[in-house]
Write a structure and sequence with these properties.
mainly alpha; 17 helices; globular
């Protein structure tokens, strides 16, 4: 009995050492990725603020275009995350890694062109949706500039996903910060003007975003080209290999579809909140902004788990695969605890950044416990989802989102029909995220158990 207890303590100690080491590695890769995402979000706010000062019509045209560009860009990023496990699997073999990077570039070009077609069609989409002609007339070349920017962003995402797969989070951060800095400076100059230059308005914003994406993508490409992992090999596209590109796409494309489902359902909730009243819509907008700011930490942590998991996946080591995920979940819970505590303690000054309406602030503060629950559940399900990416099994995530968010839409429609308020909507969202967590965790457990069979 004494020997069994000693063995149990030894196993527990070994587990703690392993997950502790993995947790530190995950945090060290995730932190620069999170900084990059937060900086990009702040840069986007500058665009909105500068255009708002330039003119209301320009701001409306910007919003119409971003309503298409935002989901398209998110879907592109989701698709390119499927590159990470393939890169991580070949990180020690330049001869196998180089072709994989070229396949990723081709996939980036394909998904980028698909998204660009949607962005370029914004005038047609706006006309069909009943957007006022005055707003559409102000679009000018802005959709075309953003379409080109999306292609560049997609190619850049191929490079950044490769860098993440290699565990080079700091290089991704440098590329992202360089692009964000360029976006801020050029937005202030090209949109608002300086000195005798009155600014270009909306076209200036498009040029700033295109320049930003070009700088970021070029920086990431250079960092990848000079990486020792590639052995100095060229990164030219070369001849496409459809079978290999499709192999990566089978992992990435379901992720893109998952992102689009999430965008669509959150849009339905936003409309439901708007139907509940102007104040409800405003409170919902602030709450979603707080969720997005916090949730990006989970995305960064999830991405950092993929390269650490890959070696264990190849070896079919189920216990170690699960330990990496548990370490990632632990880091995510720690990050959520810090951010949620800061949000709850500093709720008054934080909410005051968004509004000086005391009644509105009180409603946002009252909603914060639900916001925290939504964020924590969403963060943990995202980490489990990235675990499935590490296993190259992303169709279950798509199925879970389709079922969970499909049920959420029906619930939201019922809440709206029976006059439910914002608290009911956010309670439904929290329940949906808990269901997503259960589903993602179930499928990760199931597919990680099969890792040994797949490796044999």
């Amino acid at each position: 009995m004494t020997e069994m207890k000693a063995a149990s303590r030894s196993d527990a100690s070994g587990f703690a050492r392993l997950t502790g080491g993995e947790a530190w590695k995950i945090a060290s890769v995730a932190l620069p990725l999170y900084v990059t995402m937060v900086a990009a979000s702040a840069g986007a706010l500058v665009d909105t603020a500068v255009l708002g000062r330039h003119g209301t019509v320009s701001l409306a045209a910007f919003a119409v275009t971003m309503a298409v560009y935002g989901p398209a860009a998110a879907a592109v990023s989701g698709a390119m995350r499927g590159v990470m496990p393939f890169v991580a699997a070949h990180k020690d073999s330049p001869g196998e890694l180089l072709p994989m990077v070229r396949h990723a570039k081709w996939l980036g070009l394909c998904v980028g062109l698909t998204g660009a077609a949607a962005v370029a069609a914004v005038p047609l989409i706006g006309r069909a949706a009943g957007v006022p002609a005055s707003t559409l007339d102000d679009l000018g070349v802005f959709p075309a500039l953003l379409a080109v920017s999306l292609v560049v962003t997609s190619l850049g995402a191929a490079s950044t996903s490769t860098l993440v797969g290699l565990g080079r989070g700091k290089q991704v951060m440098r590329a992202g910060l360089a692009g964000t800095a360029a976006a801020v400076v050029l937005s202030l100059l090209l949109v608002g003007g300086a000195g005798g230059f009155t600014g270009l308005g909306l076209p200036g914003a498009g040029l700033a975003m295109l320049a930003s994406s070009t700088i970021s993508a070029s920086w990431a490409h250079h960092a990848l080209r000079t990486s020792p992992a590639l052995g100095g090999g060229p990164l030219a596209f070369g001849r496409p290999h459809p079978r290999e590109i499709l192999r990566i796409a089978r992992v990435g494309v379901p992720l893109a579809a998952t992102v689009l489902i999430k965008f669509a359902v959150l849009g339905v909730i936003a409309f439901a909140a708007a139907r509940a009243g102007t104040r409800s819509a405003a409170v919902h907008s602030v709450a979603i902004s707080l969720v997005n700011l916090t949730f990006t930490a989970a995305v960064a942590i999830g991405q950092a788990t993929v390269p650490l998991m890959t070696d264990h996946v190849r070896a079919g080591e189920t216990r170690r695969i699960r330990r990496v995920l548990l370490a990632g979940a632990g880091v995510a819970l720690g990050a959520m605890a810090v951010l949620a505590t800061a949000l709850l303690v500093l709720r008054e000054p934080v909410v005051s950044v968004y509004t000086d309406d005391a009644a509105l602030r009180d409603r946002v503060v009252a909603l914060l416990p639900l916001v925290v629950l939504v964020v924590v559940a969403d963060a943990l399900q995202a980490v489990c989802g990235f675990g499935l990416i590490g296993l190259k099994r992303t169709m279950p995530s798509l199925a879970v989102f389709a079922a969970g968010y499909g049920a959420l839409v029906l619930t939201v429609l019922l809440i709206t029909a029976y006059g439910g308020g914002l608290t009911a909507l956010w309670t439904a969202l929290a329940c949906a995220n808990l269901l997503l967590l259960a589903g993602q965790a179930f499928f990760f457990h199931r597919h990680s158990a099969r890792a040994a069979l797949d490796a044999s």
